[in-house]
Every structure is written in structure tokens, then in C-alpha cells.
Amino acid sequence: MKKELQQIIEGSTVPEDDVHSQNTLHWLLKLKPDADEALQIAALGHDIERAVEERKVRREDYESYDEFKQAHALNSARVLDELMRRCHVSKQLAERVFYLVCHHETGADRDANALRDADTISFFDVNLPHYFARNSFEETKRRWLWGYAKLPENLRVIVAGFHYQSDELRSLVKKCTGAA
Ligand SMILES: [Fe+2]
After folding, report:
1. pLDDT, tens only, 110-121
2. 1 CA distance to ligand 1 centroid (A)?
3. In whole angstroms, what is the distance from residue 83 CA to residue 35 CA?
4. For residues 101 and 80, is the Cβ–Cβ distance under 8 A?
5. Residue 135 Cα, ligand 1 centroid: separation in angstroms?
6. Per-domain residue ranges for the chain?
7. How far is the CA of 60 from the centre of ligand 1 (A)?
8. Ligand 1 centroid vs 92 CA: distance in angstroms?
9. What is the whole-number distance in angstroms between the Cα of residue 134 and the centre of ligand 1?
10. Best exposed site among 70, 85, 98, 119 by fewest CB in 10 Å?
11. What is the rounded CA–CA span in Å between residue 9 and residue 51?
12. Would you say the pTM of this structure is higher than 0.90?
């Protein structure tokens, strides 16, 4: 199942999806070294719908960014659930993964919160330069502030330590940190 999951994500048209999947697991294990199998699968597959071109949700179809992210989480949970069923993953494990992926943007219980935090940190660690390459300065600023606001205060220091190559991105982050 994990092999098939990885193949699907490697096929994504979003170039950072593959590294973000692995990097979210990396941060999850830093935040929660005893993360169980459900949580680890959820970390690897939480954005799977983005890799399935004919299924993925699109920003322009939703009024607000939060609604879009909610639809993205539910859609990923469904796509991952179908994969787990195809691969005969136990019902109990599949149900837990579904729950975690459904709540990966907002958090819910302690595990879902750890997944949300790992995903959020990973966005700043590996996705942000890619996001900036595809989006305007203002949109990237909005996305930075949206992600930063989700992070518990004790984890914000991690994000503050990330270094970016592009001068323009560094100045954007400086502006954002001042505004946050
Ligand atoms: Fe993500």
C-alpha cells in the first residue's frame, strides 16, 4: 500500500508533493517519535488528492481559502481510503487514517494536531519557495500568514529558523514576521 501511495504521489504534477509527503513524516516523527502506523500513513498521504488530476479540488471552485482546504482534506481522505481498501488494509486502520486526513488542516485530537503541525512546518520547510514561484508576492504573503497563524506558539520558532535562497522570498518572510 505504501509503495502504491508513493507511486501516486511521485506522479503528481505539483513538483514539491513528493518531497513534502516525506518531509511531513520527518517532522511528524520529530514532534511525536511514537507516532503509530495510522498517523505515519496519514502524514505520507494527507495531500494525495493533489496527485490525482481528475479528482483534485481547485481553489477557484471555492469562495474562501478555508472552504477549499476543508474540501481538499476530505477529498484526500476519500482517495486514500479507496487505496487502502484496494490494498486490503484493516478496516480499523483505514478508518483511523481517514479521520486523521480529514482533520489534517484544522487538527482535532492530539494525533490530528501533531499531523497538522508537521504539515504546517513542512510547508515552510520545503513548499514555500515552490509556492512563491507559482503565486504572486501578495498571495504568498497571505499563505505564509495563514500557515503561521495555525502553528502553536512553541513551534513558531522552528519556522523562524528556516533560510531561503531567494532574496525576494527572504524579504517577504521578513515582512510577514513583522506583521504576524
Ligand atoms: Fe500538506
Report:
1. 999 999 999 999
2. 19
3. 21
4. yes
5. 17
6. 2-179
7. 19
8. 23
9. 17
10. 85
11. 6
12. yes
